[in-house]
Design goal:
Strand order of the largest sheet: 5-6-4-7-8-3-9-12-13
Shape: flat
Structural class: alpha/beta
Oligomer: single chain
Distance between the termini: 34 Å
Number of domains: 3
Mean pLDDT: 81
Number of strands: 13
Length: 630
Amino acid sequence: MTVQSAVRNTEAATADRYLRLFEPGQRLGWTYRDPESLRSPFPEPEPQRQPVPVAYHNQALAARLTHEERKGSTAKIGGGISLLLLLLATVGGTLMVVLAVIAAGATTALVLAAGRSASQAGAQLESKTTEMEKHFQYAWQSWHQRRLQHTAAQDQWINGLDAWGALPAGPGTRRLDIFGGSQRSREGFLTVFGASTLQQQPLIVVDLTQALICEELSALAGLAGVPTDVQLLPSRMAESGIVSGLTAQELVDSLVEAVYADDPEANRAARALDTRILQQLCGVLGAEVTPARLGAGLRALMGETDETDALTRAERNRIADDLLADKNKDQMRDSLLRLASLLHPLERLGAERGGRGPGYLTCIALDFATGSASTELLGDLAVQSVTRRLASFPEAAPSVVVALGERGLQRRYLEQLAGICERRGAQLTVLHPHLREGAQEVIGGGKVGFMKLGNHQEAGIAADFLGRHHSFVLHSLTDTEGTTVSTSVAKTVGSSVSKGTTYSESVTRGSNWGSSDTYQDGFNPFPASSSSSSGGSYSKTTGTSTSTTYSTNESTTHTTSDGTNTSFARGEQRVYEYAVEPTRLQALAEFSLLLVERGPDGSVTVHPADCNPNIVLLDRVSTRPLPYTA
């Protein structure tokens, strides 16, 4: 359901909820925050079962093993002794029987004592286990109760949080340009923004879209009891006040500016000539100068008949006979014809306005009439009228919203309006249907917002305005895996022959000599006889030997090798990317709005919002900004 249908159907409950749009705080739309994202988990960890101390297990195990050991050993020893004593009882008599009974009783007592110790140790272990289980159950129940209380408190807190909050325009915002969007989305933005603006100051809306996007806001303002003045051009131009309050000179200047609005090459002579013609007419018409009287005066100058009663007979005769010479009339005929043709459709402009002044909300809108020169002229006159009204406004200047149509608006008119708003401290908001031509030249004059930009070139311009940033992105991935197998066989065959001759020669020479003495028995020291001998020898040996050696060798070598290699490489590259990709601007939802803010250091902050006025009908919606901390 739209605002208009709610007003027409007079659904009181729905209409009252729409009136929340007038609550304090200028807002551009709504931001969403999931309240569940603020839920804090329970900080205490869940209790865990603690194991029974090992000493209890060891004590029970030791007692059980002792009992088992005593049962075995005591049964064997005690049984053996008792059997032996019973055998001896046949010899020893009753004493041995008594001893056997005593031995059996002692054995049984020892086994029972060990059993009692094992039972006591087992009972202590079970008692400790039961005690610790009770402690765990108590701790877990206490923890579970505290967790339930924490969850209940969180649920109560989160259920009281708002999911939707306002996106504020920001303090000191003097200029705001919104680019793109459909007629419905711009209508929704105007409704949300205009209703919150009316709560704090008057508002003038110039709707040049020919789609009456201000109709929703005006219907809601009427429901809220806001004094509203809606001026539809050209269908209800007689009730319009765009020329009301203008002096004769201001009206002449506005008409001449509007006539030459789409001709930037118009020379000063033509503009000065038209201004002079209209000023002379105003001199004859006196204080009562209206488009109807100016049109009748131009027809009188050209000698045409006039069936209207806009001029008196005396005024008509004076204009026709005395205002211009016949020669000048012939020279000015083209200018006269142009002025008369443009003024003729506007002669009813403001005729039924009376003394009605502007409303707290003033909407000047081009209606569904087909495009024509007069419609375009009315649009230019409307903007000039607002500019002149702001320049002479005696009180605090109202806020101004200009919704441009497909035809756009001359840049100089927009700059004049922006200059007056800046001088008077008035807030100016301009809705541009496209981001091209003149709109591209004014982007960045103040805060900027983007709606859906379907055209890729416009989306690219917006992305360039948002800027780029450096980042490291994955550039390449290389994954290589290979196997190498090689086999080689080498065979070597060789032979060799060696032959050698050896020559040898040896010479042997020798010499000897000797002497001998013969002594007789007794003590005679002198020899009886003596003899001596000497000799020599010589020998020479010569030899020759020859040897021949044959050798053959053969070898074969087999070599086999295989290998596997694997490599993985990851490459990153520093790139200069858009902060917001053009495709994202093309894919925005119908009522989505991206508000762009630049910091002192040049950084860009983008605030997403939704400007659908029907959001106010939802539950958990606040008309103030959401606190993002608990």
